[in-house]
Structure formats: structure tokens, C-alpha cells
Amino acid sequence: MVINKVSVVSADITSLGVDAIVNAANSSLCGGGGVDGAIHCAAGPRLLQECQTLMGCETGQSKITGAYDLPARFVIHTVGPVWQGGDCREAELLASCYRTSMALAREHDLKTVAFPAISCGVYGFPIRSAAKIAVAEILNALESHPDAFEAIYLVSWEDEVHVALSEALQGVR
């Protein structure tokens, strides 16, 4: 059953030895605050150098780089939407972040992927809504390609995010 491949974990995403970690990036891909800043800091300067060659990334899209000094093999950078009240395609764009990240992982034959709660930090997306979108899109990808992945981790740094992700996952069991 594909749902058994999804776990909610409390961890520092930069410490995970998975095939890929997903970066909640800004459109420049050149680092920022929160998860993005932590990933750039832990990966070292070569990550920024590679990101500068990618010419940015549109909201809802994803791009992949090496992980350099991180224990992961790759970083999938995705640009989540800034919450503007819900009437500016935010849910659609957030769903696209998860879809395009899973598609990139599949294209690169990456079996284990760790996701942060995209857009839930300074971008202000309501955590419970974002968690439901994350779980739904990841499960859709797993159901469409059941043999493509071994494990998907939803990584939380804060208790509130952990609870929201856990409840969203429990809601589909």
C-alpha cells in the first residue's frame, strides 16, 4: 500500500541521508531564510554556484541540483506561492510544487525524498490546508508510480507543522 511509504518526521531536513531533499526556495534559487537558508548554508558555496546557472525558477515549478556538503545526494528546489488570501491560485501552485518535485525525483530515479512544509513559513500558507495538499499530491504520485519510490518523508521542524502533517496523513488512512 503506497500510504505506508509516507512518514512524518521531526528533524532538521539538512541532516537527512536521503536521495533528495526538497528546498522551499525563492524564485532566484540563491538562498534566503528558513529552510532555504539552512539548506544553502549546510550544502556549502557550490550549491549557490550551481543555482546561479539555473536562471531562477517559477512559482509552482521545480529544478534539481547536486547536494554538495549535505548527506543527501540531490536538492530539488521548488518555489511555493506566497499566501495572498487564497484567491490567487495559491492551492493550485502549491500542489504543482509537490507534483513537479515528485516528477523530477522519478525522472532521476530517486527512491527516497524528504519534503519540508512548502510555503508554510514566511510565505504564510495556512498549515492545515498546505498539509492536506502535500499529502494528496504525494499520494497521487505514489499511486501513479507505485514502484518508483521507497520512502517519502514529510519533515517538520515545529510541533504545529508536525501535528498538521500527521493529521493530514491520518485523514487518508
Kindly describe this structure.
By secondary structure, the protein is of the alpha/beta class. The protein has a single domain (2-170), classed as 3-Layer(aba) Sandwich (Leucine Aminopeptidase, subunit E, domain 1), CATH 3.40.220. The chain is 38% helix and 18% strand. The protein contains 5 helices and 6 strands, in the order ββααββαβαβα. The protein has helices at 34-43, 45-52, 90-107, 127-144, 159-170, and strands at residues 6-10, 20-25, 62-66, 74-79, 112-115, 151-156. A 6-stranded mixed beta sheet has the order 1-6-5-2-4-3, with helices on both faces. The radius of gyration is 14 Å and the shape is globular.
Q: Can you list the strand order of the major beta sheet? A: 1-6-5-2-4-3
Proportion of residues in extended strands: 15-25%
Which range best describes the helical content: under 10%, 10-25%, 25-40%, 40-55%, 55-70% or over 70%? Answer: 25-40%
CATH superfamily: Leucine Aminopeptidase, subunit E, domain 1
What is the CATH domain class?
Alpha Beta
| Tally of DSSP β-strands | 6
Give the uncertain stretches in residue-range form. none
CATH-defined architecture = 3-Layer(aba) Sandwich
CATH topology: Leucine Aminopeptidase, subunit E, domain 1
Q: Whole-number average pLDDT?
A: 97
Count of helix runs: 5
Secondary-structure element string: EEHHEEHEHEH
Number of domains: 1
So what's the overall shape? globular
For the termini, the CA-CA separation is: 10 Å
Q: SS-based structural class?
A: alpha/beta
The description of the largest β-sheet is: 6 strands, mixed
The gyration radius over C-alpha positions equals 14 Å
